[in-house]
Amino acid sequence: MKLVWCPETAAKAYIDTVELCGVCNDSGIAELVSSMAAGWNVSFIVEAWSHGGGTATSIGLAVACRHTNGRHVCIVPDERSRLEYVKVLEVAGMSPEVIVGEPEELMSELNGIDFLVVDSQQNRFSRVLKLAKLNNKGAVMVCKNTNPRSTSSFSWRNVVDDGSYRLIRSIFLPVGEGLDIAHIGTCGGNSSSSEGKRRWIKHVNRRTGEEFAIRK
């Protein structure tokens, strides 16, 4: 995914999120994630959320979608989680799309994800990341609450080890309980980048008749 940063949009989303989440415990994460999603002008945001997971980040994502005219989908595991999530976001004036079911099963129905947020405290969170169907130009994945002691076995390389995607870069930020962020690109002809691809070109010397194969 070619990230074209728009500082003005990022700043607007940041300010709006501060106004809505400034008193929340995890507002620092919400503001950062909101400005990232808005600044990169993502069009399809997906998050996996469950009861007790905190909603400041969710509000930040909804704010970002307002600025990008994008789609925001939240996957919740049960009706209890849905009711809690919807109640809090409606108070904040947000109405994202909510789907009830196991994230691992529902990921196959969501195509072209640009921005994905999961909570490392959820069971099999790395499996959810691995099953995501990303935009054919790549995407950004965010894993929150990534305390190094509790997620020591987690690796972005393992998320993209099937050959469909490639890890472009990743970074861990000590914000809140920890944010692990990765920029994921795709492998294959649909990617807009030719980085890492090579092809053979045949060249014939017209004077001598010799043929050469050049890898370019």
Give an account of the 3D structure.
The structure is a single chain. The protein has helices spanning 7-21, 27-39, 56-68, 79-91, 103-106, 125-131, 156-159; strands at 44-48, 71-76, 97-100, 115-119, 139-144, 165-173, 179-186, 200-204, 211-215. The protein is an alpha/beta fold and 216 residues long. The protein has a single domain (7-187), classed as Rossmann fold (3-Layer(aba) Sandwich). Helix 1 runs antiparallel to helix 2. It is globular, with a radius of gyration of 20 Å. The chain starts with 6 loop residues before the first helix and ends with a strand. The relative contact order is 0.13. Residues 189-198 and 212-216 have low confidence and may be disordered. This is Ankyrin repeat/KH domain protein. It comes from Gossypium hirsutum (Upland cotton).
Relative strand content: 15-25%
SS summary, helix count = 7
Question: Count of DSSP E strands?
Answer: 9
N- to C-terminal distance: 23 Å
Name of the CATH homologous superfamily: Vaccinia Virus protein VP39
Tally of distinct domains: 1
Protein name: Ankyrin repeat/KH domain protein
Organism: Gossypium hirsutum (Upland cotton)
Pfam families: DUF1442
